Amino acid sequence: MPKPRSSGELARAMGFNVNTVARWAKTFNWEPRAAAWDKQQVQLTMKESTALQRQNHRKAIKEYRDAAERQARDMMAVTNDLTTILANRVKVAEQTGEEIPMNLVAGLLKATASISEQGRQAWAAALGVDELMEVVEVELHNAQKESSEPAIEATENEEGTFEFEIED
């Protein structure tokens, strides 16, 4: 029965006498058994929730890693483009006899080096995330393994009633 449970509600729903149902409840220890069932359901819900949180965490980490890799590739491409532009500009200046201010060349080289370094750092961060992903994979596997293990064990006794044992 859904909560709140009562012998009277059960008796009305099943068409039995209220006193008969109350006697069964006492004879077969329905209150502690229902409490054990509720506890087991809460445990299962918590395990499922934790597994879902771990899956979501894993997904977010993977998205971060993928974004960091894209950023690193883009930054390295910008570095290559800037280097090519600068080299072509220097060639044109040499052919035409134009003087390029050294502070402009130095500034472009410095920007290129900075972007290149940021790209390498983004790539290194993405590689570090792979190690974190391995840890999360193990945790996710353990959570899935735990959720498949029974948290409650029922055995039928000689009188045909069930006894429940809860794992803590």
Fold and architecture overview:
The chain is mainly alpha-helical. The protein has a domain at 68-149. 79% of the residues lie in helices and 6% in strands. It contains four helices and two strands, in the order ααααββ. It has helices at 7-14, 18-27, 30-96, 102-148, and strands at 152-156, 162-166. The chain has a two-stranded antiparallel ribbon. β1 and β2 (162-166) form a beta hairpin. α1 (7-14) packs across α2 and α3 (30-96) runs antiparallel to α4.
The radius of gyration is 34 Å
Question: Could you tell me the mean pLDDT?
Answer: 78
Q: Briefly note the structural class of the backbone.
A: mainly alpha
Shape: rod-shaped
For this entry, give a set of tags:
168 residues; 6% strand; two-stranded antiparallel ribbon; rod-shaped; mainly alpha
Describe how the helices and strands are arranged.
Elements: H1 7-14, H2 18-27, H3 30-96, H4 102-148, E1 152-156, E2 162-166
Antiparallel strand pairs: 1-2
Entry summary:
This protein is mainly alpha-helical.
